[in-house]
Write a structure and sequence with these properties.
10 strands; 5-stranded mixed β-sheet; Nucleotidyltransferase, domain 5; alpha/beta; about 40% helix
Length: about 325
């Protein structure tokens, strides 16, 4: 049975769809373990206003305070005379239930089965759509970034955690509950470090910013050259497996760790992928920096909102 809250959100969405989807702005929100930010993004993927603040430590109520603070700020900063965005798009860590109805980010301990879309829709009176932040990045890269014009690719975030989103034949993969693409939980070091998911040796447990800080005893940004190359190597190992599994030849990587480590990371990742991806259709897979820069999470969140309104078809690969 459809709940009254879900029905109300559906009615809001239908009202917005009566307008021109290609002409609307989106309130885009990116919720992470390190930072929370929001922007008003237009239908071309351009940020018209932006607010950002550090994430609070663990407490769920404080996280909501932070989310509302940046969202309200982005709305108040939008250009004079512009109409309030009629839809909200959110990128957030997972896992989550189908359609992003309930989220339980591994990096936000205070949120377990949190109804993010419902709370935002109730506060702002417009439909809200939630998806995994790395899947949102995949939408952003196909819309405005390094994957424009590509129909098959993997987008990754290597930051506090490690996530991924996959586009095949021009469509974003969702999976049974919307969690497709969790490359951070591919095992790259059998019997390696314990992971928050309950397994061992996951990419996230070995190469995320959190893992690197635990391994080295200092900030991930201060890692030495050997650790930076090891991080890239493990990402390349996982990317090669995905390329062989899914017949794709492009991997776009974003996130403060990957982009901060630069050439050492990407050279090591490419070399490992070249070594591991040997079957003919995966050979030559390219690992490149994401093209949207630090705007990627917000452009992706906007794409989540537009995709929600458009029934999953817009915006994707052009």
């Amino acid at each position: 049975m459809i709940s009254a809250d879900a029905l109300a959100i559906d009615v809001l969405a239908r009202d917005v769809l009566a307008r021109d989807v290609l002409a609307i702005d989106v309130l885009a929100i990116d919720i992470g373990g390190t930072k929370v930010e929001a922007a008003v993004v237009d239908a071309d993927g351009t940020l018209r206003s932006r607010r950002r603040r550090p994430s609070p430590a663990d407490d769920g109520a404080d996280m909501w305070t932070a989310v509302f603070e940046v969202a309200d700020g982005a709305l108040s900063d939008r250009p004079a005379g512009s109409v309030g965005p009629p839809v909200i798009g959110v990128g957030c860590g997972g896992p989550m239930t189908s359609g992003g109805a309930l989220v339980s980010p591994l990096n936000i301990a205070g949120w377990r089965n949190e109804p993010v879309a419902q709370r935002l829709a109730e506060r702002y009176g417009v439909p809200a759509f939630v998806d995994n932040d790395a899947k949102a990045l995949a939408l952003a890269e196909g819309w405005r970034g390094a994957a424009v014009g590509h129909q098959n690719y993997l987008a990754m975030v290597v930051s506090t955690g490690v996530g991924g989103g996959i586009v095949l034949n021009g469509s974003l993969l969702d999976g049974a509950d919307g969690n497709a693409g969790h490359i951070g939980h591919l095992v790259v070091e059998p019997d390696g470090r314990p992971c928050a998911c309950g397994s061992r040796g996951c990419l996230e447990a070995e190469a995320s910013g959190t893992a690197i800080a635990e391994i080295t005893g200092r900030r991930a940004a201060d890692a030495d050259s050997a650790m930076r190359r090891r991080c890239g190597l493990l990402v390349g190992r996982a990317a090669a497996s995905v390329a062989s599994l899914l017949d794709l030849r492009l991997v776009c990587v974003a996130g403060s760790v990957a982009l901060g480590y630069g050439a050492e990371f990407f050279d090591a990742a490419q070399a490992e992928a070249d070594s591991r991806a040997q079957i003919s259709f995966a050979r030559g897979v390219r690992i490149v920096p994401a093209g949207c820069g630090d705007e990627g999470p917000l452009v992706g969140a906007a794409a989540v909102g537009l995709r929600g309104l458009g029934g999953g078809s817009y915006p994707l690969v052009t």
